[in-house]
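Pipeline run #58 for the internal structure catalog. This entry was flagged by the ingest filter as a single-chain record with no existing model, so it goes straight to prediction. Upstream metadata was stripped on purpose; only the residue string is passed forward. Reviewer on rotation: M.T. Logging verbosity set to normal.
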Amino acid sequence: MSAAAVRSFLARHALLARRDLGQNFLFDENLARRLAVLSGVEATDTVVEIGTGLGTLTRALAERASRVVTLEVDSGLVAALRAESMLPDGVELIHADVLKFDLAGLVRTARPPIRAVANLPYSIAAPILRRLLDLRASLVDWSVMLQREVAERICATPGQRAYGSLTVLHALCVEATPSMRLEPRCFYPVPRVRSTFLRLRPLDRPLVSEPEFAWVERVSRAAFSHRRKTLVNSLRSSLKPRPGPGSIERALERLELSPRIRAERLAPGQIVDLARALASQNAEPGGSG
């Protein structure tokens, strides 16, 4: 499919690429096949795809997987795909808003091994990435098309400008590998941003236990909530429940960290240690679990 073919398809169905849905369609079939290979999909896999678009990547995934279930929010696009039989037999197309859809339920009832593949609208990338983290115990891995800056945030290291709570949460649970960079011309309409295809695999030995994860996430988000402030001041103003007097300073002292340090200087493992130190002082009801 070419950009001209995309325009023709949309015109036949009186559709436009919707900016509010972040629609920039991947149209190169050969590129889609390469992405399917990079996502590691094998013949026994069930693939859950988020964002069907024109079905270009869907078709490439269906060539490799046992089953593909694909979610698309745009009702007009769903109708057009069905009207022109754009998807192979056996692909299950679901009209759904992934932000409201029971993704966990779908994964729970699917036949393993299960992989997820997503061409995410950039405006909702963060919440979908967070939901995929919650499914990490059920997925072999997941591959996502992201705005390059978001991919850089996931893969950042301490001290880098992109380093933040999104980095920490992923580093605690998964290994993130940039598989391919895509230029704007790979999509129609041409976006103003560059993209990265990123593959994420759950760690065999995550740095934090499942019962601790919610508390560590809360501490991490609070720590990075005011990047210009010291860690002490960020936690004091943003962490809920509010830490008791001197508890943050005592936790830092226990970890031999300066009270003037900022969150971006801490490695993910140190964030975990800090969360545990705070929990031991009853800053978190029930402790670290």
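catalog note: The first strand starts at residue 25 and ends at 26.
catalog note: The beta strands are 25-26, 46-50, 67-72, 92-95, 114-119, 141-147, 174-182, 187-188, 195-202.
status: ready for reviewer M.T.
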